[in-house]
Amino acid sequence: MEISSLPAFLDYYGKIRQRTLRVARRIPTDKMEWTYQEGKWTLGDLLRHLAALERHMFAENVQGRPSRYAGCGRDLADGYNEVFAFVDRLHEESLEIFGRLGDEDLQRKCTTPGGAEIRVWKWLRAMVEHEAHHRGQIYLYLAMLGVETPALYGLTSEEVRDRSHP
Fold first, then answer.
1. Which CB contacts under 8 angstroms, 24+ apart, belong to 122-128?
2. Contact 147, 28 (CB under 8 A)
3. Residue range 65-124, pLDDT digits in tens
């Protein structure tokens, strides 16, 4: 998928973020810093990582600046409400930056932290793929905790099967 219109992309990305937050809001308040194994990221780490990377890497890179990503630890936001406030604040900052781009900016190149030169539209697409990846981890963590999660697109797999024709 090539991104050729910034307004269309921002609308699409807004829907991606809504689906991520829909599942993230299912995290029990006492499980924000839960992980399945010592040394692995917690649910809070995953949310802080999404927020910090969106703002301090992707948004910086599309402006022609180097990444400022410094991690996803509790020092950034500690506590259920604080984590969601951090996610919201950094997302708004990122949207402000993305909103200053014009459609012509999508075709220019930016440099990734790995040193690759990539068109801005491809870097924004990678940002969406990154979010989908970590959203899947949140779904898995919640399943491990026995927390019921929302269907991604409105129907569960079983509901789709039941409504399908043989």
1. 123/58, 123/61, 123/62, 124/3, 124/9, 124/13, 124/58, 124/62, 124/98, 125/1, 125/3, 126/58, 127/13, 127/54, 127/58, 128/12, 128/13, 128/16
2. yes
3. 999 999 999 999 999 999 999 999 999 999 999 999 999 999 999 999 999 999 999 999
